[in-house]
Amino acid sequence: MDVTRLAGIDCGTNSIRLLIAQPGDDGRLRDVHREMRIVRLGQGVDETGKFAPEAIARTRAALADYVTLMADHGVERVRMVATSAARDATNRDEFFAMTGELLGKVVPGAVAEVITGQQEAALSFSGAVGELDRAAAPFVVVDLGGGSTEVVLGDREVTAAHSADIGCVRLTERCLHSDPPTAEQVADARAVVREQLDTALSVVPVQHARTWVGVAGTMTTLSAIAQGLSAYDPAAIHLSTIGYDDLLAVCDRLIGMTRAQRAALPPMHPGRADVIGGGAIVVQELATVLRDRAGITELTVSEHDILDGIAASIA
To answer: In angstroms, what CA-CA distances link 163 with 12, 107, 151, 287?
Structure first.
């Protein structure tokens, strides 16, 4: 009996990612192909309110390559979701027309969909906690993206969630203009993050959490640097942990570096070097809040996230 291959695509503010998967006999999805490209779709959206033509062109080129891969692997189902940047852009119809043209070559009628922050949170949570021991629940899952950060609390299912308008790209474009950023710029960024987290944590009672799980590129890169990896190694990063003091030290180091210095770090993706300082500020503020409110003193980093949740949703 043939088993349907399926694909999930996550198009965020900073990157577009593809997971081609196949259900196993036990019902779990098995990776066939997983890939990420930095396309910076959200370039300037916070300031202009619309997608830049060059950002759509970069995203189109990456998605066209993904369509070829899906065809080569015999994908029969596909779901593509667009998150923070696509919720904010006034010219998003141009973006969706492009996705319909390309995805229709794989599955007729397929097109990207904008999901709400709540939907994004639920998919991130599903992908992040699938392999975790339930004895460690409740979990607070933090999906730190380019334009937004989802804070999600739950056990087997989501019990509370909030999407905050702070992400590594948005925060960098808004506050961190120097290279490296000045102390005043970092202080301004912290103020923005704290204001957003105050709102998020009035909705999400993180004091009930026992385990903090971080997903997406800022989190995984922080783990790689904390471990001193000589290259980005998903196997070494997946389900790794970082203690509070080590986490703050790595974040301080990244915030104080120039972009060139960050880019020279072996595990750093070149498309992340200019914005990871903003992500590190978000992580530091979260780490302190979760220590103070929930007594959590380490971060567990998962390579599985919203992308896995998207694929599972059509399995």
So the answer is: 14, 30, 6, 17
